[in-house]
Specification:
It is built from 13 helices and 14 strands. By secondary structure, the protein is an alpha/beta fold. It folds into two domains: 168 residues, Rossmann fold, CATH 3.40.50.620; 137 residues, Argininosuccinate synthetase, chain A, domain 2, CATH 3.90.1260.10. Helix 1 packs across helix 7 and helix 10 packs antiparallel against helix 11. The termini are far apart.
């Protein structure tokens, strides 16, 4: 029986040329799998047909936008996931979902290998392969760009030689990956970290410096999940999509950073995540209102480790699942409304309300009616500082 390679297919030049290239190199039949995670662009049916025209024996397209929003973006939101305190895990969230559908296609179509278009310098090779190892350890992986030094100029020449129905002339100076949760841009002149991004880098966000009227939005959460905007019940996908539009129009969510890649190098990345930035900001503030202090402090440690695991490609790891369980427990009371003003590149919280609020006005106020017994504070402070006082006396005694 002929081997079959299940290829993560985008519809672009590199993965289109990879179909006949893999067939020649491996002698296997190629099954193309394209997954819509909200990246926009071409119609899925056009992409499906192109894969067949390039030589795929089977071509599958999956509309996974709602799945991506509910099962990947929402867990990241509940974890306040920001790698290095800034990056909201855009590409890192989509890779395990795509790997899940690649593994499913391998079962359906008898695939023995899985192929992806990642290079040997990036994080995504690890994310795909670590996910596949957890989902189906028997699958073998082939990565043309990494394993066969398959460069873009070689792909262009190969596509022209084979007469593939793909545009080989369009060349973007950037490497771009985008989905519902945001957009990542790298390479080109951005590789010089002294160069400032120009406006043509951005697509999801408008120039935050342009004059415009502010946009006020009220986000309703239930158990840590957004369920409504301005009182309108919506799905997670609809909420993120609408906030991408509204916050993006205000220039919210631009990030320019040098980050630590898993493979050990530093990389300059420019991100746009208007919806994600707005939602994470709102969710964090609602946690401030509804989550008890020690739980909140420990959750920040959990959130950081969760973000690192997902960034490193370990979505399906035992530790990630265990942290999910902790986060799920801690989100039980994270319900209520957050009012925000979107303007000038910022999403600013202006109001909070929750039936599960731990904020007690009578304890917090400094005016008449204050129910906080300040007479108890003197003894508390003395006992709280006693270990430091004793240690200081010891240090003075010993010189």
């Amino acid at each position: 029986m002929t081997d079959r390679v299940v290829l993560a297919y985008s519809g672009g030049l590199d993965t289109s040329a990879a179909i006949p290239f893999l067939a020649e190199k491996t002698g296997a039949e190629v099954v193309a799998v394209a997954v819509d995670v909200g990246q926009g662009g071409e119609d899925l049916e056009v992409i499906r047909t192109r894969a067949l025209d390039c030589g795929a024996v089977e071509s599958v397209v999956v509309d996974a936008r709602e799945e991506f929003a509910a099962d990947f973006c929402m867990p990241a939101l509940r974890a306040d996931a920001l790698y290095m305190d800034r990056y909201p895990l855009l590409s890192a969230l989509s890779r395990p979902l795509i790997a899940k559908h690649l593994a499913a296609a391998a079962v359906e179509f008898g695939g023995t290998h899985v192929a992806h278009g990642c290079t040997g310098k990036g994080n995504d090779q690890v994310r795909f392969e670590a996910s596949l190892a957890a989902l189906n350890p028997s699958l073998k992986v082939v990565a043309p760009a990494r394993d066969y030094a398959w460069t873009r100029d070689k792909a262009i020449a190969f596509a022209a030689e084979k007469g593939l129905p793909i545009d080989t002339t369009k060349k973007s100076p950037y490497s771009i990956d985008q989905n519902l949760w945001g957009r990542a841009v790298e390479t080109g002149f951005l590789e010089d970290i002294w160069n400032a991004p120009t406006e043509d880098v951005y697509s999801y966000t408008a120039d935050p410096a342009l004059p415009r009227e502010p946009d006020e939005v009220v986000i309703t959460f239930e158990s840590g999940l957004p369920v409504a905007l301005d009182g309108r019940r919506l799905t997670p996908f609809q909420i993120v999509a609408e906030l991408n539009e509204r916050a993006g129009a205000q220039g919210v969510g631009r990030i320019d950073m040098v980050e630590d890649r898993l493979v050990g190098i530093k990389s300059r990345e420019v991100y746009e995540a208007p919806g994600a930035t707005t939602l994470i900001t709102a969710h964090m503030e609602l946690e401030n209102v509804t989550v008890e202090r020690d739980l909140a402090r420990f959750k920040r440690t959990v959130d950081q480790r969760w973000s690192e695991l997902v960034y490193d490609g370990l979505w399906f790891s035992p530790l990630k699942r265990a942290l999910d369980a902790f986060i799920d427990t801690g989100q039980r009371h994270v319900s209520g409304d957050i009012r925000m003003t979107l303007h000038g590149g910022r999403a600013v919280v202006t109001g909070r309300r929750s039936e599960a609020s731990l904020y007690d006005f009578n304890l917090a106020t400094y005016d008449t009616g204050d129910s906080f017994d300040q007479s108890l504070a003197k003894g508390f402070v003395e006992l709280f500082s006693l270990p430091s006082k004793i240690a200081s006396s010891r240090d003075a005694r010993l010189g």
